[in-house]
Design brief:
With about 160 residues, the protein is an alpha+beta fold. The protein has 2 domains: about 1-30; about 45-160, Mannose-Binding Protein A, Chain A. It contains 3 helices and 9 strands, in the order αββααβββββββ. The chain has helices at about 1-30, 65-70, 85-90; strands spanning about 40-45, 50-55, 100, 110, 125-130, 135-140, 145-150, 155, 160. The strands form 3 sheets. The chain has a 4-stranded mixed β-sheet with strand order 7-6-5-8. The radius of gyration is 24 Å and the shape is globular. The termini are far apart.
Length: about 160
Amino acid sequence: MRYAMTFAKGAALLLLVFAMSAAQARAQNQTPANTASVAPVGWTDPATGLTWTMADNGSDVNWNQANAYCLNLRLGGYSDWRLPTIDELQGTYDPGIDVPGHLWKGEATTFHVKGNLKLSGGFQWSSTQKNAGQAWYIFLRNGKRYSIQLSDSYGWRALCVRR
């Protein structure tokens, strides 16, 4: 009888351990793609299906640093972030939307950007190069495209995107 009771307790403990292990494995396997209760990591543009980080990188970066920042970003369980093309970035501009922000010198301004994205500087790099030494960026206060040397960094930021 004593052996049967010890066996029953051991079996119950073993079942409990298996159940806990299975639950933990299921929880570890849940990714943002298959879990409905995951908090948003950015804003998804319904027109394009692109997901944008809710804020830019927050500091001055040159074009190479902006690219590296986005490529190395791990956010919300995703690792496929990248610097947007100039056309993708242009798609975030909407003159009918006012979002308060600051220019690179700290001056208060209004950006016209969808998704209530938080911008810490006036200029957002794109991955699109104009030529070998310049890349396009957009000023989301007026929606205009400009190009500048890849090595410039004062006031330029990285706003990352993923599909």
